[in-house]
Design a protein that fits this description.
It is found in: Cell envelope. By secondary structure, the protein is an alpha/beta fold. The protein has 13 helices and nine strands.
């Protein structure tokens, strides 16, 4: 009896040792190249590095991940095209793929549409996000691996903004995005399209007296040296999409897919934590530099911008309505 027990224990020990070695024995080794226009120091690429490390460890070196940050493989348009053609395995991008590949869903990159980060994530994980993912896959051969946060956009200004009425007549810098131009025009602001590299000089010369952007943009362009106030409107929560060539993904073994899926889930959650911590640290840095924060009622901004948003939903984003999105809880 003791002998049988010992043999049984030995069998269990043998299985425990051998199983991991066999997990990827039948799987062909593959390489995942991840390209991004964003620098390696960004939260997005730090999260991608975590993904690479997790994949390497859990696949027992069966899957190699190589990172190409800072536009080494081109800008976002180039990366999306390479993903579609199967010339690249994976990309870490902003929301450009939604705007360019599924323009009817580009409200994901528009101001005054979502209440906050949680609202964005619920929409992305629900019916509307499913439709974007299905479109990516069926029409472009791209699989959406997941989404992580990048931070809220706020308004900088020369004078404090305590309510949406304070925007009336204020000259504010915008890029060339129609949703931004239309929405801020609806609040009563005077929108002046200016290229981002010219923003600081334009503020100093008084061409404009306000701008919008996330904390990292405000800090990197040293707007604390040109502006005194930040209104914490959070009118858009910016996100990063992680995409993979679908044919490549489907060519992975079941075990390889499991490793990739779980590593992506954990790395994206890590990226969200990094983004939240960076946002907090940058906000404190800007306050220490002398910028004063105001917290106007965001609902009033959304109400002012709603007519412009409704028109965009009617003309460009006909897959849904502002009211339908507002009811996502």
């Amino acid at each position: 009896m003791l002998r049988r027990a010992a043999l049984g224990l030995l069998g269990c020990l043998s299985l425990t040792v051998v199983a991991p070695a066999l997990s990827f024995a039948q799987d062909k080794k593959v390489t995942i190249r991840i390209a991004s226009a964003f620098e390696q120091t960004t939260d997005m690429m730090q999260a991608a590095k975590r993904f690479a490390d997790l994949v390497k460890e859990r696949s027992q070196d069966n899957i190699e991940v190589k990172l190409f940050a800072g536009g080494q493989m081109g800008g976002e348009k180039d990366i999306v095209e390479a993903l579609k053609l199967g010339e690249l395995e994976m990309g870490v991008l902003g929301t450009y793929p939604i705007v360019s590949l599924t323009p009817k869903y580009s409200f994901f990159d528009a101001p005054f549409v979502f209440r906050d980060k949680e609202h964005v994530y619920k929409a992305w994980s629900g019916k509307l996000g499913d439709e974007v993912r299905d479109n990516f896959k069926k029409n472009h051969g791209i699989r959406a691996i997941g989404m992580m946060g990048r931070g809220y956009r706020h308004i900088t200004s020369n004078t404090p903004i305590n309510s949406v009425d304070d925007l009336k007549g204020m000259k504010i810098r915008m890029g060339q995005s129609k949703p931004f131009i239309d929405a801020f025009s609806a609040t009563g602001a005077v929108v002046v399209p200016i290229a981002l590299p010219e923003l600081f000089t334009s503020l100093k010369l008084g061409v404009v007296s306000a701008s919008d952007g996330p904390f990292d943009q405000i800090a990197s362009f040293k707007l604390q040296e040109a502006q005194k106030y930040i209104a914490l409107t959070g009118h858009l929560y910016a996100t990063s999409l992680w995409l993979m060539n679908d044919r490549f993904y489907e060519g992975l073994s079941a075990k390889q897919k499991e490793v990739v899926n779980q590593a992506a889930k954990e790395a994206l959650a890590y990226g969200d934590e990094l983004a939240a911590a960076s946002e907090k640290a940058l906000g404190e840095k800007l306050q220490q530099a002398g910028m004063q924060f105001t917290k106007p009622d965001y609902a009033a901004f959304m109400a002012k911008a709603k007519p412009a948003a409704d028109k965009l939903f009617s003309e460009q984003w006909s897959v849904t309505t502002a009211d339908e999105i507002a009811n996502i809880r």
